[in-house]
Amino acid sequence: MSECIQLSFAVCRIGIYTCFRALCCKGPPPPRPEYDLVCIGLTGSGKTSLLSQLCSESPENIVSTTGFSIKAVPFQNAILNVKELGGADNIRKYWSRYYQGSQGVVFVLDSASSEDDLETARNELHSALQHPQLCTLPFLILANHQDKPAARSVQEV
């Protein structure tokens, strides 16, 4: 009987030790790589709405960005740290101060905007494409508001 109890205790110790090693000794999961992006575009183009959707935040109470905001957008294999820069005329002249360290650019434009606003967006996009800190980075150009009746197609933009 005592041999049976000793054998049971030995099996339990081995089981507990195995579980302990499996649960506690793996170490933390490897960190996900982080990428720093800058998100630019004119006021009302949808930058804040885009980032809110990517962060699974409520689309209610979205307020136009004054200055800048930073959001961490988590994905399964990476984290995007996105600096969203306000698109008002008096803020756009300061955009270049926030470009340093960026690894990519998201340019959001309102595809349903007026011809004048679209021309302004084109000029800002060309300026960003030629900027020394951005000219070698990947750009994502997002033609937003495609659901509006006045929206232009990607080819028209």
UniProtKB/TrEMBL annotation:
SMART domains: ARF. PROSITE patterns: ARF. Transmembrane segments: none annotated. GTP binds at G41, L42, T43, G44, S45, G46, K47, T48, G87, N144, H145, Q146, D147. One of its GO terms (molecular function) is metal ion binding. Signal peptide: none annotated. Coiled coil: none annotated. InterPro entries: ARL15 (IPR042292), P-loop_NTPase (IPR027417), Small_GTPase_ARF/SAR (IPR006689). Keywords: GTP-binding, Magnesium, Metal-binding, Nucleotide-binding. It comes from the Eukaryota. Mg(2+) binds at T48, T65. The keyword Nucleotide-binding applies. Belongs to the small GTPase superfamily. Arf family. This is ADP-ribosylation factor-like protein 15. It comes from Oceanites oceanicus.
